[in-house]
Amino acid sequence: MSASGVIVVDKERGPTSHDVVARLRRSLRTRQVGHAGTLDPMATGVLVVAVGEATKLVPWLTADDKGYLASIKLGIETDTLDAEGRETVRSEVPSDLEARVDGALARERARGEQVPPVYSAIRIGGERAHELARRGEAPELGARSVAVRSLDLVALRPPDEIDVALEVSKGYFVRAFARDLAASLGTVGHLTALRRTRSGAFTLADANGELLPLAEAAARALPVSTLTDAGVVAARHGKRVPIGEIATPHAVPSAWLDADGRLVAIGAVDAAEGHGRVLRGFAA
Questions:
Q1: Which residue of 4, 44, 179, 209 has the lowest C-beta tally within 10 Å?
Q2: For this structure, is 40 an active site residue?
Q3: What's this model's pTM, rounded to 2 decimal places?
């Protein structure tokens, strides 16, 4: 069996996330490669790539919070809400911009819902929103629940540029943040630079080109439980695992390891029923 694990890539500006995956498929000579969380072509930074059996981890690798450094230009909005789009609106930037920043950032920190950009991969009736938008249609996207864990001003560069650092939940669009922050400041705006500094447990410090082994990657992303030999046998067969066969059981999805530290499954425990359930098994 070919090696399995996670590679953290520091993506450069220009390639799509799919381009990075295609490049790794060629260099690793395997089709079993996927990424955990898209980065737009304009964006740089942490792109978590799963190889081999680690592709089964992707649903959990994408579920975590992410961190970004973002630059926004005020006074101009584009159709894609970033610098690669077509200018659609111009608006004067308030002369008292500095006085408005704290209040605007506070409102964005409190945001619990966000309307995604029309140029996004969200599906509407079986088609991607960006496909509809490029045909000249106007996809209607409803607000989605999001959370801002932290939002800090990095630099205010009068008369019309602002840099921020933010930590946000899954499903949060920084391009939409640029739109909403600009509106809160009394103007329009678009994203000019975006760098992902963290994706879940993985940071830019991990972008060293090395393959992080499967079990280690799972243990970085999830809580860990160790199974007894009997527990391993049950889990390998997709059966319920008695809670007594699971050291340090967790009710949330967890990395179930054997005594030698190999990943057996992702599982979760129902304490009321007294057993654990396999959510995803891994090859021995």
A1: 209
A2: yes
A3: 0.92
